[in-house]
Amino acid sequence: MGRASHALAPETLQALLSDRARAAPAKPILDSSNDVVNRISFVYGFPDGDSLPAAEVAEATARVMATDGRWALQYGSNAGHAGLIDVLLKKLKRDQGIDAKPENIIITAGGSQALALLLDAFINWGDTIISEMPTWLGAVQAFNNVGASVVAVPVDDEGTDTESLERELKRLRRQGVQPKLIYVISNFQNPRGISTTLDRRRQIVALAREHGTLVLEDDAYFDLRYGGETIPSIYSLDQSGSTMYMGTLSKTMGAGMRLGWLVATPAIIHRLASLKVDGGTNVFGAHVAADWLPRRLPEHVGKLRQIYQRRRDLMLAALEQHMPPGTSWTRPEGGFFIWVTLPEAIDTTRMLAQARERGVDYLPGSTCFADGSGQNQLRLAYSYATDDQIEPGIRIIGEIVRGELLEAGRR
Amino acid sequence: MGRASHALAPETLQALLSDRARAAPAKPILDSSNDVVNRISFVYGFPDGDSLPAAEVAEATARVMATDGRWALQYGSNAGHAGLIDVLLKKLKRDQGIDAKPENIIITAGGSQALALLLDAFINWGDTIISEMPTWLGAVQAFNNVGASVVAVPVDDEGTDTESLERELKRLRRQGVQPKLIYVISNFQNPRGISTTLDRRRQIVALAREHGTLVLEDDAYFDLRYGGETIPSIYSLDQSGSTMYMGTLSKTMGAGMRLGWLVATPAIIHRLASLKVDGGTNVFGAHVAADWLPRRLPEHVGKLRQIYQRRRDLMLAALEQHMPPGTSWTRPEGGFFIWVTLPEAIDTTRMLAQARERGVDYLPGSTCFADGSGQNQLRLAYSYATDDQIEPGIRIIGEIVRGELLEAGRR
């Protein structure tokens, strides 16, 4: 009953592929966990390994299995485990000031599935999405997978550039194109680390309404603020029902839980639930999270803020110390990332091999743009590398940049 | 920061929806767990609640968290947790006789995500899929979501009707249509409970090859055989690489784990992993399953076989006792389901309200057909209702059918 290693002829496979499959670049199957263990890793937005609540999760699982095991191990609702929904609604009200009801929320496998479901529900091949650029790498990939035409709006030190947003919306209107979605990471934006100001959030709401389009507010980093004042969410500023609010447990309880959520109008949630044929999202993990969150989240988040604030400060100091003139970087009030802009002569994709050879890893800026620009930029995550790895890692990057600049001067 | 209850105007939402969202019927958000507790439930393919290994899962979680918590709670590979892949490959070799390597497998959120990924990779709107009919309700919905044109092939007491399959393939060829996929549930088919014979499996392989199409072999019920001989999988009979083999832990370890897998050529697996932007499938659950499976699966499956065989026998006996003449049903050697064909006069969708009112639930046959036929048929799951619920439940259904027949005789 074995199987010979005959493979399907590549041309046969090619002939059967969908547009989606043809558009997706063949990614290497990376086990990112293997990738980070032997390097000073500034590359992924991974939560700190040591602070993950492993023992507490074991305890929560024991409690859940003793009291509710027959439902935690059974198929679940397509909207998500009601117990987790209940806990999240309380958290959203307490922390985010978002007042939502069970019919406003759907549980997803991390923010990723929320985004994928939305794209399935709203994007036909060739439809237009407006997105901040640079933005989250996963969103760039997901937009590409569904054949979306992505209109880029830049981000500056006040967040989404709403003047540019307005200009693009007007241009699309003149061209008779209805954009389906504006994608915004409102707090500590990935990859720049900068939040969109209250004034700009209000403008986004007004523009979306005026142009009959939706807003997807991705707020993955909300809980991780290390300074400054909380800014009301776009969702809470929007009385029109156009804004959808996406969150995740990946940056707090742990990315391995693969649990996120989307808050939106009941009509949108119902549409998404109807498209979701998955037997319930991670029913087991959802039960464990529903036990852990009310008991431990606030204290855990307090601990994480201390860790990440310290690392952000260490990284900012190291950049000050080691980066050559002509380099600039953002100074985030929260989240995981610092965005570095190097002199024009530097190509951060090309430079990566040197960094990896010297045991340091970062994310080249071009991966954060749908059009591959950002060649002289890079994203540094300060979330995962340990305190004492940060200065040595930045020193090495600084040395490589200086070397590249010398090299470029000689050409 | 609250939010008024203003909702997006329905016409605004409607204008933004994708073809997929328009095609998906607006399903009620059902919490199926609420649905089953107050009834004798023959409706869902739920594993037996009492036999779910809750205490063992708590122990497995404690072990995983003590030894590998920092990776179980972290982002994972897009192909799935390497430890679970390793365990599954051993299981597939030992039990299924399938010899696969790590590059042949991808871990998915149940069989559902494997199917959804495949459809994304191979189906453009309007593309043709050949499927057994009746078939798994989830597949019918998933095909519908991606706008597939579904060609039905009947199923009889030897499984997939391969004469009909050949006829349809030839017809499509004459019409210049390249079918992308043949979907087959090879063992204890959902909903009929009948396996496809070895001879027919060989014919499926030959026909797929001849017509340059793929086969998706769904083998969700493999482990649950209560009689007869194991039949080699279509996958193991296919030397051409055209067959993909799909499995799940939902019917053994527990549906709440939301873990399944797909075995295929490395080129196909690579394509699927490239489309999969999800931070890894249920990393936490995958680590727990990788601990539990090698320790407990064989013994657990032995226990499940006893339970489900007994329930099948109880249900067959009750049908014999209570169903009126003119009714027929299948006699499965494994799996969860018996398929009942009532006299033509009966409409099982209409009859359902009576059954539910009398505390019994079943699945109307029409939900298992893409074209809504099967009005006089119904699916009975014997997996979830307890031993002592089976006879009373079938008695009630029998009474309702007799009543309906009397009613029909009067019309």
Tally of separate domains of chain A: 2
> Greatest chain-chain interface?
A-B, 118 and 118 residues
Helix content of chain A: 40-55%
**Percent of residues in β-strands of chain A:** 5-15%
Mean pLDDT of chain A equals 94
Shape of chain A: globular
What tags apply to this protein structure?
homodimer; 411 residues; alpha/beta; Aspartate Aminotransferase, domain 1; Aspartate Aminotransferase, domain 2; disordered N terminus
Describe this structure in words.
The structure is a homodimer of 411-residue chains. Chain A is α/β, with parallel strands linked by helices. Chain A is built from 15 helices and 14 strands. Chain A has helices at residues 10-16, 19-23, 32-37, 54-72, 82-96, 110-122, 137-145, 162-174, 198-210, 234-237, 250-254, 266-275, 283-322, 348-357, 387-410, and strands spanning 40-41, 105-108, 128-133, 149-156, 159-160, 181-185, 214-218, 243-248, 260-263, 328-329, 337-341, 360-361, 363-364, 377-381. In chain A, helix 9 (198-210) links the parallel strand 6 (181-185) and strand 7 (214-218). The longest helix of chain A has 40 residues, at 283-322. The first copy, chain A, is globular and about 65 Å long. Mean pLDDT of chain A is 94; it is low at 1-5. The interface between A and B is large, with 118 and 118 residues.
